[in-house]
Design a protein that fits this description.
The structure is a homodimer.
Chain A lengths: L4 E4 L15 H14 L3 E5 L5 H10 L8 E7 L11 H8 L4 E7 L2 H8 L3 H15 L5 E7 L1 H7 L1 H13 L4 E6 L6 H14 L4 E6 L6 H10 L4 E4 L13 H11 L7 H4 L2 H11 L17 E2 L2 H9 L17 E2 L7 H10 L9 H16 L7 H13 L6 E11 L7 E10 L2 E9 L2 H14 L9 E13 L6 E12 L4 E8 L2 H25 L9
Parallel strand pairs in A: 1-2, 1-8, 2-3, 3-4, 4-5, 5-6, 6-7, 7-8, 9-10
Antiparallel strand pairs in A: 11-12, 12-13, 14-15, 15-16
């Protein structure tokens, strides 16, 4: 079975998308998730171009990754300097990654217009840049920018660029359809000519979706000999996006019989896609192939009855193979095994026929229809499991809160203050605090009240706070309405956890997420105390 | 030049999409718009299956269409009756369309499992249904459901179905990839075999996007002899959708040199795509190829400077050829050329050497470092340009606000109330309002105060609200700190705009975005008033 390597550029080319903006912490989280999925290369950014990317390469070194190799990306050296003195190439080496990817111009129009150099000088830039970097890295890839457009305009020059990169030591020559305008049959024809001229070069493919053909073009290239596929999660990228790895991977694995992740990891695909869209705070695309919420949703009466007889009748693959599930509006049979799986993961000993499981399933379905998103909010999910399966005593009782925000001058920041009354084991605590906004003030006030009883709450910091309007289903009427979903990420220095709240009212949604965060921390400390100085559970 | 006929099924297969629900009036509006675009066939629905579709066929007869022929869709007759006595076929004839499309089973699994008939009976159903309808219509098409899956399972049976349909008088045999699981090279191989067995049959293609290959599969089929392409506007359809005509048409016209609409009508493509999404009340997909808002949007500094030199460098077609236009996004890589471009687009006459441009650039950079995201918040950016370039009088003066959120019971929603004092031309207004959270209450209170002076603010609705924590740069110290970024999307029914606010305090950030939204609406109305009843500027 031929092995195809998967090269993810969500963190670099993906962030060229209009709506995608990631902090360094976001990037670290995404990189770790992609490593878990089993991708082979993760392009972390362009260290020469901005401080966020530089920071990423410093941070990611502290994490031990299991399968992925981190890659830094940059251009050939500036034409008025030398490779040795080029600050861009220097910052690539400072990134200290085992793999580097250099892009160079291979379209004569671009060399002349965008760079403003002669075609000869362009070949020198490619050669000198790759030769300079070669001794410092394990693997060196060459991204041939605008390869197909370049070939169509001036095949001799484009092939010269490829030969130069090959001779200068590039391990893989990546053919880029940068503008996304190439048709599948053109890919076939042009690749054949490259292979004729460079029979011993390894080829990769990097396509864009401007003609809605990025996935097809990538697959066709693999069929004709490409050994590496570049793309992004959910197809994020500039303009119409990059080739969507969430479609390419299952096509390679399930339809073309090629090995990239293996069947077990493939099941994490949907979870990974959702995770990245949540970190990016972007609405997932409902109709997205393979991993979208509608990908295996059946509406028509004929389809539903046929699917219930034999799901192969209207489903091209088994949804579970990519971690998705069939949705049939009448009776959703999926879910029970997922919950069982997660419950066991959290340490609960539940039997498949336990009647509490049905109640839990109903409750989770109702909540997810409203907009709760448990795939990211693991801590809230674990608390819900505990509540339904163990009915523990609450750590504290809520009585009331008031939050006041006031602003008296145009240029003055508003003042936010909160008062909270709670009680623990019959003892009341009434506290007040101020903060950067109502949620921050509320969070500080309630923690201040509880710290007397649970001193380790002092360790908790709110790391991130995300709010989105979601269209939830109104259970009573079957209609839909706008809800607000709040995701809160907390940390006590050692553990990180995410909690969720959903309500019509943003303060209520935030309150739910904050309360879950506090309860989760107390629970973690309890587990740690029980286990002596052992592992504090699964954060 | 070969002529390809375009067959739209937005009104039938498209409405199988989870989110797409159209009334009869909606369907009439869409059909007239598709006729204006120049599509050749418009499948209006399945008259046997629901009253909306029956009504559509009665109504559409009253409209004179210029190019399109209306088509009714239905299945082969019920297996326990005859074609003559089948109510489904009768309702097709009652639709009185010049064209009918009949779908039949061509996969043995489906004939046996879904219909529950023998393979011989299935052939009879196809033959009798088509033969019965043939004398009553100008054109008769046969949709071979699950054609490719059927062929892979039992080629002899599938080819028998095709021969039967051909002999019974079908003008075109439409090969359907109903489950969307077929790869482009399989289309080529299977079509060649059909053509060998039925050399004088005309073929059509109908694909689904479950593998993100619907457009590629349709194009490949045309290259190998299909004369009709079926699809939907924006790719709407069940699960992952149908083949997207908005991508197929420009590929055929601009890349494959085939005639379908002609260059003039092709320019209406984007307008048509937006019109259909408006009628359906669905958010257009930002990254949609050819017609999406991001399809020709450039963000990276390198791309922007190259595109300004020669747009071919990063655009695969001229955006105007499909009625779209180039957009330059601002981002933290923003340079002088980006801003100059945007200023000109907003109607400001600024010279490259204008000293105000330097000040503006510095200001924008400082704001983007803090976390302002002007690439999405076009309205806030335009207001900033106006402020810096024209120093206009403010529309109102802020004095103060108070917001109170209170919650008194565990199961009670918090109550949010706001009071605001503002003045317009020396006149003070003091109002209060409640809402689903502090920002909603604040927004309502300030608009209530201003509606006395600017009555058209009543038209504005907050459509979406997004909050996230960003790591901004502290200008004074060079360190970083957490800021909150709020994005607000507003609409007055006609125009949509997005505004942004950034602050340590979420209430302040929201306040900025809300104030920008109000100012932008007043500004839009002013422009409209100045222009008479003309275009209100570039929203």
């Amino acid at each position: 079975m031929k092995k195809i390597s998967l090269y993810d550029t969500t963190l670099r080319d993906g962030t060229q998308a209009e709506e995608l903006n990631l902090t360094t912490e976001d990037k670290i989280r995404v990189a770790r998730k992609l490593d878990e999925l089993g991708l082979h290369y993760i392009e972390g950014g362009w260290p020469g171009s901005n401080p966020t990317d530089k920071q990423f390469f410093r941070e990611i070194r502290k994490h031990r990754l299991s399968t992925a190799r981190i890659t830094a990306f940059g251009s050939t050296h500036y034409h008025r300097t030398s490779a040795e003195q080029d600050p861009n190439l220097a910052s690539l080496l400072e990134a200290e990654t085992p793999v580097l990817t250099i892009f160079g111009k291979t379209w004569d129009l671009h060399a002349r217009t965008a760079l403003g150099v002669s075609l000869e000088r362009n070949l020198e830039l490619i050669h000198a840049s790759l030769e300079h970097l070669r001794p410092h890295v394990d693997e060196l890839f060459f991204d041939a920018e605008h390869f197909f457009d370049g070939y169509k305009a001036n095949p001799a020059f484009t092939l010269d660029c490829m030969k130069t990169a090959h001779e200068a030591g590039a391990d893989i020559l990546v053919l880029c359809d940068t503008n996304g305008g190439t048709l599948p049959h053109e890919i076939v024809k042009i690749m054949a000519d490259v292979q004729k001229h460079l029979p011993d070069a390894q080829l990769g493919i990097h396509t864009h979706n401007d003609s809605e053909l990025a996935v097809a073009n990538a697959l066709v290239a693999v069929q004709h000999g490409a050994v590496q596929v570049q793309g992004t999660i959910n197809g994020y990228g500039e303009r119409c996006g990059n080739a969507n790895l969430c479609s390419i991977i299952p096509c390679l694995e399930l339809k073309m019989g090629l090995d990239c992740l293996g069947a077990e990891r493939l099941k994490m695909l949907r979870d990974t896609a959702n995770y990245v869209s949540e970190v990016a705070n972007l609405r997932p695309f409902l109709r997205q192939p393979f991993v979208g919420a509608a990908a295996f949703a059946h509406k028509g009466g004929i389809h539903v009855s046929a699917v219930l007889k034999d799901s192969e009748t209207y489903e091209h693959i088994r949804p579970e193979s990519v971690g998705n599930h069939q949705r049939v509006l009448l009776s959703d049979l999926a879910g029970k095994s997922n919950i069982l799986f997660k419950a066991k993961q959290c340490g609960f000993d539940v039997d498949r026929n336990d009647p509490r499981l049905e109640i839990l399933l109903d409750d989770i379905k109702a909540r997810e229809e409203m907009g709760y998103e448990y795939s990211v909010a693991d801590a809230s999910f674990e608390l819900l499991l505990r509540e339904k399966l163990e009915c523990p005593d609450p750590y504290f009782t809520f009585h009331n809160f008031f939050v006041l925000d006031s602003k008296r001058e145009e240029d003055e920041l508003p003042l936010s203050e909160a008062t909270v009354i709670v009680s623990v084991r019959g003892e009341r605590a009434h506290t007040a605090a101020s903060g950067n906004g109502p949620v921050n003030a509320l969070d500080r006030a309630v923690r201040k009240a509880l710290e007397r009883f649970y001193p380790r709450l002092k360790e908790v910091r709110l790391k991130d706070f995300k709010v989105r309007v979601v269209s939830g289903v109104l259970r009573d009427t079957g209609g839909t309405a706008s809800f607000v979903r709040v995701l809160v990420e907390s940390s006590d220095g050692q553990n990180h956890w995410t909690t969720v709240g959903v309500s019509h009212n943003i303060i209520e949604a935030s309150w739910q997420a904050v309360v879950d965060s506090i309860n989760y921390k107390i629970h973690l400390d309890e587990c740690e105390a029980k286990a002596g100085k052992g592992d504090p559970g699964a954060p």
